[in-house]
Structure formats: C-alpha cells, structure tokens
Amino acid sequence: MTGAQIPRYRIEPERVTTDGADAAALMAAYGNALDEWQQLVLDCWLGRDASGRYTVTSAGLAVPRQNGKNVCLEGREFFGMVINGEKILHTAHQVRTAKKSFNRLVRMFTDKRHPEVLELVKNIRYTNGEECIELLNGGSIEFSARSRQAARGFDGISLVVYDEAQELTDDQVEAIMATLAASATGTRQLIYTGTPPYPGCPGDVFRRRRTACLDAPGAHDAWHEWSVEGEQVDKIDLENHAVWYQTNPAMGIRLSEEFAAEECRSMSTDGFARERLGWWSPILTEQSDKALDARAWEACASEAEKPDGKTAYGVKFAVDGSAVCLCGAVIPKDGPARVSLIEQQPTGRGLAWLVDWLNERYDRASCVVIDGRNGVDVLVERIRPTWKAKSAVLRPSARDVIASVGLLVTTVNERGLTWYKPQQALNESAITSIKRPHRRRVWLWRRQQPAAGSLRPGTVGRKNLQTRPDTQNAHWIKENHDDYPEFWYCGRADRRGTAATQRPGRGIHLSPEPQRHQRQIL
Q1: Across 304-440, where does the E strand assignment appear?
Q2: How far is the C-alpha of 46 from the C-alpha of 40, rounded, in Å?
Q3: pTM of the model
Q4: pLDDT tens digit string along 226-236?
Q5: Phi/psi at 301 (nearest 5 deg)?
Q6: What DSSP character marks residue 214?
Q7: CB neighbours (10 Å) of residue 170?
Q8: Residue 342 has pLDDT above 80, yes or no
Q9: Does residue 79 contact residue 26 with C-beta atoms inside 8 Å?
Q10: What angle do CA 239, 241, 245 make, to 5 degrees?
Q11: Cα-Cα-Cα-Cα dihedral of 514, 517, 519, 522, to 10°?
C-alpha cells in the first residue's frame, strides 16, 4: 500500500504537451526515478501550449515534510539547465537548506559515471553563501538564503524557486521579482514549495498564493496540495492510518506507518496535523504583536565606522543544549551603542573554543553574560579561574531579562543604538520578532520564525556595560564577513540552535544561519 499519488487539490492550466517525461527520463538516468506523484507535478510545471511556451508562470506545491518535494525541484532544475540552458535562482529560508539543495545537484553534475554531463560543467562555486553551478550551454543555478538583498547581482533569471515558502515575506518577494524582468530564455516561472505555515511564521505570501489558486486561479497558475480536511484540528482523526496515506504520497515508499505513529505520539495535536497531515489552519492561531517598531529600528541603521568604548560579551545556550552563540556589544563614551554577532556553533564541537576565546579577552571587556540552561554551568566553571573579578561573569535573572527588554525598546525608539545596515539577517530578525506575554502584564521576546527572530534575555550585556567603569579602554573585535565589511553585537541561539544577534541592551535576534567570520583584534 502506498500513499495517494493524486493530490487533494490539483490546479493546472491547460497544456498541449509536456517536457515532464523527458525530465523524468533524465532523472532516472541519474538514479533518481520519480514517484507517480512527482511525475504528475513535473508534467504540469513543464507543460507547453500550442506555441511551445510553458503554460505555468506561478506554481505551488504543498506537501508534508519528507515526502520528496525536493526531487520535483531537482528534476525541474536539472532539466532546465541541461536541456533549456535556463538561468535559475534557488532560494531558501535558511542557509543550510540552500546548501543541501546545492550539494544534491552538485552530485548529479559531478557523477563520473556520466561524462556527458561532466563535460557540460563550466564552473562550480562552493563559496559559502555564493554557491553556483554554471554550464557551457549558458545554463546556471545560483543558491541563496533569502533576505531583502538576496536577489542583488542575479540577472537574466528565468526560473525562481522559493523553497520553504511558508517563511517567505513580501519584502523578499519584491526584491526577487526584478530578477525575472530580463529572462535570458524569454520564459518566466515561479515555484513555491513548502508546508502549511505554523503559528508565528510569516506565512502571508504562501497562504495568499494558495487562496488565490483555490478561489480564482489565473490562466497560468498551478497548485498541488496533499492535505487533510478539517476546519478544526479536534475534528480530525489523527490516528487514522487511511488519513496518513491520503496526505502523504510517499507513505509506504519512503515513509512508514511506524514512524508516523511515533510522530503522532510525540508531537502536539496541531503540530502533527500540520507537519504530517498538511493541515492548514483556517486562520492564523496567533496575532502578531511586533516587539520593535520597524521604522524606529530602520532609523538606527548605520554605515558609520565602529566606535570605541566599553565592551561586554554575551553567550546564549539553546534550551536543549544543541548550540551556543557568542556575541559582543560596545557602548562608547559618547554616541549610540553598536552590536555584533561573533560566532555560533553546535555544542557538539565542545566548549574549548569558547573558553579559550573568552579567557584570551578577559582584560578587554567589562563582563560576560551567560544565559540558558544546558552547558552554562560547565562554561562558568571553566572561565571562573580567569574571569575572577566580582560580577565579571553574570547569569541574568528573570528580572534582568524584563528590564533588558524594556531598555532595548526604549533605546531603539530613542535611536540610542546602531546596527550595521548591510546586515540584513539582523534586520529581518528585528522586524519580525514578536511579543510573548509574561506574568503581571510584562512581556518578553518570542521567535516570529524558528530561524530568525527570537529576542531573548541575553540583552543584559548593555545594562551591565552602563554600570561598570572598568572597560573604558576595551578593544573591539572586528568581524570580516563575506557579505559586509564589519559588524558588531551581542546575541544568542534559540532552542533549535540558530544563530542569534542581540543589540547593545537586550533582546536577541536570531540570524537565519550561523555565519562564519574571521576575527582580528584591533
């Protein structure tokens, strides 16, 4: 028994013929035989009208995780590059997701068993954040984690892929759409793939695209969706195996009933319905109350040189201990503070690098603020012999966190801090973070996106800087980054181990992905 190969919703424009069979044959030749449902989707995406033009301009694919939607994308991209010579832009919410897609496609182009494709390759660029495959026939694909600046430098694109489309924002779409204006092949196609938006996720673009396709599809719109019916989650029979097969086309192929049963036992009701059964909640279950005023935050952007002043470091451990984030903040004698991410690493790497890094800089900073649970005691024990001064190592209390939250909001509204303007990951995190209600009418930060937006307590760094006089001559750490010359700040990681950035005073903003930096002491 296998999952349903025909989707619950199937919106397709009329076509005369399709390149889908050719694309499937090409994939099969490279050891990636398509499932029936994947073939169905590719037939639609590559359908042509009587004049030979592709009939689909905008396509959406919503299917629960781990079913194989990436194979659909690989089939479309591989065929587009090799046969059509198309220029493609593949975007994802997280750097690591884009990297995984790049690596899968690279394996197809570097398979020595197929010299005919190897000979097509002009260049493969592995540089982190600039991954690209270029072919001698003019075809190419570039991979990018999304930001407002993500589409700069991409010209003549004919296909844009929005992977993890549930995380897509209007700003990102507006930035990327311009890349289609001068398509090298004359064709233009947008493909949105993802899962139903979760509470607090942006979701507006993907949900709006779905609504448009289901209510009044355009002549060139396509939408394929595997999902469960139900306005209310408590009306869905979550333990019905027939529902599992109905909503997961790969069930019985790559997915098993045993694992789905484990998910059902382990996940929340809403989570299982959404992630495994493709359930779209009729309305967003959480009203977003933005933590920071976007205009006030934007007004704090600066391209000015860094200041000198008091320095503090902030360390945040993920709730499950899976990652640790290191940041730094400075408050100059005059003028606003500046903040910057230093490094974020999985704790599987150990803590020796962090201990050494902090101990080498004891005489250059006022204090180090360490927040979290798992890993905190070990780190404190290892740096105490060096950070011996009273209050040199601080662990913020709930009261510290609440005070820090209020100070950050006030500081932003009064333009009392700066952040480096080209640092768009920090910007997106700041403007998408929302408030989390706390007891007695106070509030804390909540992640608006798992990978970009948790404003959490480690912001106390600046508060401590304001009260300690022993770092007037502290040094800065200069961060040389591939995308922007230098930036500075304090931050942390959330429970999923995402890179976080924190402003001089409080709050932490998660960057979509850990960044790599080269440090120099000034």
Answers
A1: 309-317, 323-332, 337-346, 367-371, 393-394, 417-420, 434-437
A2: 10
A3: 0.59
A4: 999 988 888 89
A5: -65, 145
A6: H
A7: 11
A8: no
A9: yes
A10: 130
A11: -100
